[in-house]
Design brief:
Elements: E1 2-6, E2 29-31, E3 37-39, E4 65-82, E5 104-108, E6 113-120, E7 129-135, H1 138-160, E8 173-178, E9 184-189, E10 197-198, H2 199-216, H3 218-221, H4 224-254, E11 257-258, E12 267-269, E13 282-284, E14 291-292, H5 295-300, H6 307-315, H7 321-345, H8 356-366, H9 371-379, H10 385-405, H11 416-420, H12 423-426
Antiparallel strand pairs: 1-4, 2-3, 4-5, 4-6, 6-7, 7-9, 8-9, 10-12, 11-14, 12-13
Helix pairs in contact: 4-7, 6-7, 7-10, 9-10
């Protein structure tokens, strides 16, 4: 399991990169796990009921693109080992557990990805804004970078050719190309601010705004009416974001694909203004570690990017293809549960009160996935009270859903459609 982690945007701006000057890069070449160059057309896309649609028309000519400013870069945390909690075991709460991430050994991945703005300059889509996601060549990123790029490409092509209607909660691939140095450039549709802002950006800015407002205007901050309106807008925004996230996950699971890299930096937003919540669209990106969970694929054995998942599945007692498939889906749900917890806490707290790693340690290590105990702990801290109130909606519906998604027994976690239709996510409690 690898999780995307956003890095600080780079200060330098790279404009007008000269790509395609005299280079014949019309064919997108990617290398498979054996290091052999593979054209995009060589991917086998006829799995299940989904067939290749000629209407996909990916743009592969680099001269059809104009590259704009560098937005930033991000890397990956590589979970190299994992020891899950055994179901039915009564874990005591040990104070020393705070600060220790016992369930996972985490290392920084070696692939650093750059993001650029850009636009299409030729053809029927001329003027369309794009977001470039750039994978380093083999010299800089090794074989893993090429495998990630190839997997992300094939996953997007597969998902975008599965239905006559595209899923609005997945970032749409429009094309891409390979440079002479071996870098893989994937171009995604970039409507409004898509790709510029992520769920992580929203949470950070929201938290900073709470801190700033309290410092600049303490009287208004403590005004019950003003405060109530502020957190009402925040709740609406987060719920709308969760609806988009789970809708994207439902679509992926329905088409036999896991995300496997779900986190705050893997969700892009078209707005971060809470007043624009009715128009918010959350889209999933970072499908480089997506896993095919069709039975035929599972029976073939693990690929280089899915070995860790299936190793953990066996450790959890999932041996046959059906059990492994169910474990994979439950693993995605667990990641989505941690993301849900992040969005329920970070935007509702002032800066420095809570961060993603501290929250994960609190939930996984200190309280061993007992969300009722987590609630009691948070109730005793006034700085976390708004997060508690949010999850308390509907007589604790948020805590109920979070507990189900983070159930130590993977067999008891809900599927994505059940999460999507839960009363906390539908917004009926607001």
């Amino acid at each position: 399991m690898l999780t995307a982690v956003a890095m600080e945007p780079l200060n330098s701006i790279s404009r007008g990169l000269s790509l395609g000057l005299g280079l014949r890069l019309g064919e997108m070449n990617f290398r498979g796990g054996n290091g052999v160059a593979l054209p995009a057309s060589s991917f086998k896309l006829g799995r299940g009921k989904c067939k290749w649609k000629a209407s996909l028309n990916l743009i592969t000519n680099p001269e059809s693109f104009q590259v704009g400013p560098l937005i930033g870069s991000y890397g990956f945390f590589n979970v190299t080992s994992y020891s899950g909690f055994e179901s039915g075991v009564d874990y005591g709460y040990v104070a020393d557990d705070m600060g220790k991430l016992k369930t996972q050994d985490v290392g920084e991945g070696g692939v650093n990805i750059r993001l650029y703005e850009g636009r299409i300059t030729q053809g029927s889509m001329r003027g369309t804004r794009v977001l470039f996601k750039v994978y380093p060549g083999q010299r800089a990123g090794g074989a893993e970078a090429d495998m990630m790029a190839a997997n992300e490409l094939s996953t997007h092509i597969f998902l975008q050719s599965c239905s006559d209607e595209t899923c609005q909660n997945l970032l749409m691939l429009l094309g891409g190309f390979e440079t002479k140095t071996g870098e893989q450039w994937l171009a995604f549709r970039c409507e409004s601010y898509d790709g510029k802002y992520t769920a992580a950006d929203y949470a950070k800015i929201s938290s900073e705004k709470l801190t700033k407002n309290k410092a600049l205007d303490p009287q208004s901050f403590w005004n019950p009416f003003e405060q109530g309106q502020t957190f009402k807008r925040k709740r609406l925004f987060v719920i709308k974001m969760l609806q988009g996230i789970f809708s994207g996950l439902v679509y992926m699971h329905a088409h036999d694909r896991l995300h496997q890299s779900l986190g705050p930096a893997s969700v892009v937003l078209n707005t971060i203004s809470e007043r624009e919540a009715p128009y918010l669209v959350a889209r999933l990106r970072d499908l480089a570690f997506s896993v095919d969970i069709s039975y035929s694929s599972i029976e073939k054995g693990p690929g280089a990017l899915s070995e860790g998942l299936w190793r953990r599945a066996i450790t959890a007692g999932a041996y046959n293809p059906m059990e492994k498939r169910n474990f994979g889906i439950a693993d995605d749900i667990y990641e989505a549960g941690l993301l849900f917890a992040y969005l329920a806490f970070i935007p509702f707290c002032e800066t420095g009160i809570m961060d993603s790693l501290s929250l994960q340690r609190l939930v996984e290590n200190t309280f061993q996935l007992d969300l009722e105990a987590v609630r009691e702990y948070c109730l005793a801290d006034d700085r976390l009270i708004e997060a508690v109130k949010f999850l308390d909606l509907g007589d604790g519906a948020g805590w109920e859903l979070l507990q189900a998604m983070l159930n130590p027994d993977y067999r008891k976690r809900p599927v994505a459609t059940a999460v999507q239709s839960h009363r906390f996510v539908t917004g009926v409690l607001l």
